[in-house]
Amino acid sequence: MLYWLTALSDGGDVFNLFRYITFRAGGAFLTALLFGFLFGRPLINVLRKRQGKGQPIRSDGPEGHIAKAGTPTMGGLLIIGALLTSTLLWARLDNPFVLMVLFVTMSFALIGFADDYAKVKKQNSDGVSGKMRLLLGFLIAGSAAYWAAQYHPPELTNQLAFPVFKDTLLNLGLLFAPFAAIVIVGAANAVNLTDGLDGLAIMPVMIAAGTLGVIAYAVGRVDFTEYLDVHYVPGTGEILIFTAGIFGGGLGFLWYNAPPAAVFMGDTGSLGLGGALGAIAVATKHEIVLAIVGGLFVVEALSVIVQVLYFKRTGKRVFLMAPIHHHYEKKGWAEPQIVIRFWIISLILALIGLATLKVR
User: Fold this and answer.
1) pTM
2) What is the pLDDT of residues 304-328, one digit of tens each?
3) Which of 15, 96, 196, 319 has its CA 20 to 30 A from that of 67?
4) Which range of residues forms the domain containing residue 29?
C-alpha cells in the first residue's frame, strides 16, 4: 500500500525510499513487531476468557505437559495478524507471488483455526479430521502451484531446479502442480508436528523465513542472479517484505511463548506459517533447498512416519515417543535444553541452505 507513495516522489525526496524493497522490508518488520507487542496481551486475555480450560493436554503425552493445562491456544492469530497487516501495508499488492503466498498462508491458517476451535470446544485432541485437513490443504496448495507456474519465466515453468547444479532442470510437466502441492502441504504439517514445546517451532520458522526471504530477494534481482549463477525469477524480491513480517510477528509472539508459554501457537499458526514456507519455496524455485533450510521440520515429520510404520509392522517403537522432540523429553532432557539445541540446529541448516546460492 505504502509503495504507491512513490508516485509523489521526484526522485530525491523521502518518498523515493518506498521504491526500495529493503526499506519496506524494514518497515514490515517493525510494523509486525509493534503489532505483536501492542495486541499480544489483549489477545491472550480474550483467548483465556473465551477458552476457559485452554488447549486440551493429551493424557498420553510427556508427564511434564500436565502443568501446562489451562494455557490458551490460537496464539497464531497474533502472528498471522501481524504478518497480514505488515504485508498489506508495505508490500506491492500487484505482485502475484506476494498474493499467492498470502493466499496459502491465510487459507492454511483458517484450516488451523477450525481445528483449534473444534479441539477447544470439545475439550479433546480430536479437531477437524485428518482426511479433511489434507483434502483442503491439497486443493489450496494445488491452486497455488498452478498460480505460481503462470508467473514463472517460460524456461522455468513446470521445472524443478536443483541446488549446486546450476544448469540442471527437471521438467515435471503436468506433475509440477502435484509435486508443489506436496511441498506446501508437507511443510505445513511438518511445522505443525514440530509445535510441541514452548518456543520450539516459532524460532526455526523465523530462521527459515529469513533465509528464504534472502533467497527470494536474490533470485528476484537479475544482477544478483548473474553473479550467483542462480535462476532469475522476476518479482520474487517482494517476498522479502512478507518474510520480514513473519520475523517481526514471530518475535512479538515469542515474547509471550517463551517458557513458560502464556499462549500456544496452535494449528492456526503452525499450519499457516508452514504453508507460507512451502509457498515461498515454490515461488522461488527452491523446493529442494527448503528441505535443507527446514531440515528440522523434515526430521520431526520423518520421526512420526518412521514410528507409525515400524509400529504397524512390528508392534515396537523406534523412538520412546514421536515426534522426536518428545523422545528427548522421555530421555530426561529439560524442555529449554531441547528447544535451544533445536534452534541451533535450525540456524546451522539455514546457513547450509544459504551456501547453496554460491556453491555452483
Assistant:
1) 0.95
2) 999 999 999 999 999 999 999 999 9
3) 319
4) 2-355
